[in-house]
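Hey, I'm writing a tutorial for new members on how sequence and structure tokens pair up, and I'd like a real worked example in the thread rather than a made-up one. If someone can provide the structure for the chain below, I'll link this post from the tutorial.
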Amino acid sequence: MATQVRGAARKAQLLDQLVELLLAEGFAHLTLDELATRLRCSKSTLYGLAASKEQLVRAATVHFFRGATERVEERLAGASGARDRIRTYLEAVGEQLRPASTQFMEDLAANAAAREVYEQNTRYAAGRVQDLITEGVRAGEFRDVHAAFVAEVTASTMVRIQRRQVAETTGLGDAQAYEELAALVTHGLAI
């Protein structure tokens, strides 16, 4: 049992280190040999996490977004009032993306497996935004809007952020784009 706990802790630590490396530098240019060297482990240790580089990148991406989602929800738990909750949520999403380098985001957009993880996370976040809007309308804190429509527009923007289209057309990084989206949505919903 103690060996399993140590193994799980080592795996989580290694995934954390891998995520940090990938966020800082991207991943398309890195080989498994380079990753093993940089993480100070063997290739067989990496193969213990995933069977290929693509699966390893996907596992790291899942690990990153799982942790990011937990941290966003923790921040949201401290917010009160519909406007503060939706602003906090979108800004927290942006904060979680702040450590991601441009290279990471470009590699993510170009890699089908990692992009799918980001898209799934974006769909979850869009659904969460719709829930927050619906709660605000019901509480009388937001104008009576069609929550699904506003969430759809928000989700479309989130997808454009994820696909690097907002960065290309505005020069905004993902974190900055989420801050601007938070301001737009909260001001647009105000009574």
